[in-house]
C-alpha cells in the first residue's frame, strides 16, 4: 500500500497527503510486522523505517521527524546496508541538492 501512495497512483489525493499516507503505511510495516520478510528472505522492517525518514525529509519536508526516524534507524539497524545512507541523509538534512554538491566539492580528497 505504501508504494501505491508513494508512487501517487491513488487518484483524488494531494501529493503531500499521498506521501503522508505512504509514511503511515511504512510505519505500520515497521511497528506491526518486525519479522516480515520479502520474497528474497530479507527483513522488510528496516527498509520501511528508512523510507519513512526519506519521505519525511525529501518529500514532506518534516526535518524534525526525519531526523528522529533516521536516528532510530541507526540505533536499531547499525549494520544494515542502508545505515551509511541514513548517516548521509542526516548529514545533509535540510540542504538543497546544490548545497550538498558544494559541500562535497569543498571536502578534501
Descriptive keywords:
109 residues; mainly alpha; Serine Threonine Protein Phosphatase 5, Tetratricopeptide repeat
Task: Provide a descriptive summary of the structure in words.
InterPro entries: TPR-like_helical_dom_sf (IPR011990). This is Outer membrane lipoprotein BamD-like domain-containing protein. The chain has 109 residues and is an all-alpha fold. The protein has one domain (2-106): Serine Threonine Protein Phosphatase 5, Tetratricopeptide repeat, CATH 1.25.40. The protein is built from six helices and no strands.
**What is the CATH top level name?**
Mainly Alpha
Q: Provide the CATH architecture.
A: Alpha Horseshoe
Distance between the termini: 43 Å
Q: Overall mean pLDDT score?
A: 90
Structural class assignment: mainly alpha
What value does the Rg take, in angstroms?
Answer: 15 Å
Percent helix: 55-70%
CATH topology: Serine Threonine Protein Phosphatase 5, Tetratricopeptide repeat
Structural shape: globular
Question: Uncertain runs with pLDDT below 50, 5 residues or more?
Answer: none
Q: Element order, helices and strands?
A: HHHHHH
The count of β-strands is 0
Count structural domains. 1
Largest sheet at a glance? none
Number of helices: 6
What percent strand?
under 5%
